[in-house]
Design goal:
The chain is 37% helix and 25% strand. α4 links the parallel β3 and β4.
Length: 364
């Protein structure tokens, strides 16, 4: 989801739904952008165009459910970034056999959280119904994705509104297009608190301090998570006298790719990201990594509490917990030893690190 603060400029993504050769979609999208651009500039609205034919998304090929936010393929990640950055959408769609184009349904199905709490308007085109039956079908899909269809629409009958592959100049049509943009911007602004506040399905938890929520990390958490990670590992760099630490070199794309192999959890306090951790199975071990707490929140017991939580998420088939930390990170080592971990040796211990393990407490 977009996480821009209240008052920030709105970003509207115009989606060209048809991929068919000879289609009218790009010309109609160009007309809509041209007709609304002066109003958009006056209101500080940015308009971007995503042509599904140019994007070339394959038929849905992600192994994980879209709600997990774990994307294997770069084409999905690129689409995720594009949609997540938008505050609202305009779908330019024809009607095929009383319904939406398959490419549009496929584009919706690739993602989940990125669509939520954003309004969508429609510019449809066709013959008898001017594409309105496609719009009705699409509305059923977008509402399931927690999107809000607006009332204002543009419906173009091809024979009446286009000539030689272009939209016929019409002051009335231009005014209707501006009406769509105006209503879209008003609804997007009203819905912004739903997009910027903590996720509605976060789990409130009883932690060492009040106001904590805990959730599995999602794609729109990653930029903030990367900032937190770099803040936290500055202390590790100082303690270990080196800047050659992987968490400091990691990019947003690296972090996004990690979601396909690691489970990531985020902790927020009154909406602000204050802690995070990741874990995955490794042979018979539950490997825990990147346990971090914002420097100004350290000392409140959040780290110990989060470590205990992630230990409880270990799959039944694992026999012990395992983690690594810097060999000079005495504060971290003391925390882990208090939690029952012991220093051990391992062949895959990175240079400058120590390896700690703890047997799982299995309940009969």
């Amino acid at each position: 989801m977009s996480s821009k603060a209240a008052g920030a400029p709105l970003n509207v993504l115009v989606i060209v739904a048809s991929t068919r050769p000879g289609r009218l979609g790009p010309a109609i999208a160009d007309w809509f952008v041209g007709a609304t651009l002066p109003e958009a500039e006056r209101r500080g609205i940015t308009i971007d165009v995503a042509d599904l034919a140019e994007l070339g998304l394959p038929l849905l090929d992600e192994p994980e459910h879209p709600s997990s936010g774990s994307y294997v393929h770069e084409h999905t990640r690129a689409w995720s970034r594009r949609v997540a950055a938008a505050d609202a959408f305009v779908v330019v769609t024809p009607e095929y056999n009383y319904g939406m184009p398959a490419a549009l349904k496929n584009a919706f199905d690739f993602l989940y959280h990125e669509w939520a709490w954003k309004p969508v308007g429609f510019v449809s085109y066709g013959n008898t119904s001017a594409g309105t039956r496609s719009v009705q079908m699409t509305k059923q899909v977008v509402t399931t994705l927690k999107m809000m269809p607006i009332g204002a629409t543009v419906a173009l009958r091809i024979a009446d509104s286009t000539r030689n592959g272009q939209v016929i100049e019409s002051a009335g049509l231009d005014k209707t297009a501006r009406g769509v943009l105006l209503e879209l911007s008003q609804v997007a602004a009203a819905m912004r608190p739903l997009r910027t506040r903590p996720h509605r399905d976060d789990t409130s938890v009883s932690g060492p301090v009040e106001g904590l929520t805990l959730t599995i990390a999602r794609p729109d958490d990653l930029a903030e998570l990367l900032v937190l990670q770099r803040c936290c590992w500055v202390q590790e760099a100082l303690a270990n006298d080196t800047l050659d630490l992987r968490p400091l070199r990691e990019t947003l794309d690296d972090l996004r790719a990690s979601m396909s192999t690691w489970q990531l959890w985020c902790v927020r306090r009154h909406g602000r990201l204050v802690a995070a951790v990741r874990a995955r199975t490794h042979k018979r071990a539950w490997l825990i990594g990147r346990l971090m707490v914002a420097p100004d929140q350290a000392g409140n017991g959040i780290g110990s509490w989060l470590l205990s939580y992630v230990e409880e998420q270990a799959p039944e088939e694992t026999t012990h917990h395992e983690l690594f930390t810097g060999h000079r990170s005495t504060r971290n080592i003391r925390l882990y030893e208090r939690a029952g971990y012991a220093l051990t040796t391992a062949d895959d211990t990175p240079d400058g690190s120590v390896h700690l393990t703890k047997q799982r407490q299995l309940i009969a």
